[in-house]
Amino acid sequence: MPSVPVGVARPGGQKASVTVELFLDLCCPYSNKMFKTISEHVAPKYEGEVKFVFHSVAQPWHAQSCYMHEASLAVLDSAGPQKFWDFAGALFCKQEEFFDDMVMDKTRNELYSELAKVAEEVGVAPAEVLNRLQLKPGNAGSAVTQRFKWATKLHRSRGVHVTPTVHLNGLEAGVVGSGWSPEEWQSFLDYHLAEAKHAA
């Protein structure tokens, strides 16, 4: 069992009254769109009021998605939550370079090396990432495999299939869409923050 909560909270929301969980795939264009809206326009406005948590959901029909999420967890393990969020943002910006047709003929190690270079762009040493992605003998995985298993178990146990999926305070918020504007997020969050205040 995990000794700490599964998912990566964006720094600054530890005392927030409202929690928004984002179930995202780093290879999913719709996840990309939502992440950019949240990280660039929404989360900065609600610093300290709303806790945003990133949950890794690797969609198996994009085989390279597993490697992308493994690299993100290696960044988390070596450099902490802020660098994880920075890495996710940088990787989303380069997402098309990791689409199916772009990686079909690349090896696992080639992809790891490219992902480590993305980590370097946000100030994480590539060697730190690659060390954590180094496979153990046999079929035992790497230093991040167990964390990845917990992430996968969590989204499966909560019935998450589509990316992105958003949960508000533990329950799925089916009304939220990847195409939501900052203004739609503001209306949604302001309502729930006001309700949380009244309930306190």
From TrEMBL:
Database matches in InterPro entries: Thioredoxin-like_fold, Thioredoxin-like_sf
Ranges of residues in domain Thioredoxin-like fold: 12-190
Gene3D superfamilies from the UniProt entry: Glutaredoxin
This protein's name: Thioredoxin-like fold domain-containing protein
Organism: Polarella glacialis
Taxonomic lineage: Eukaryota, Sar, Alveolata, Dinophyceae, Suessiales
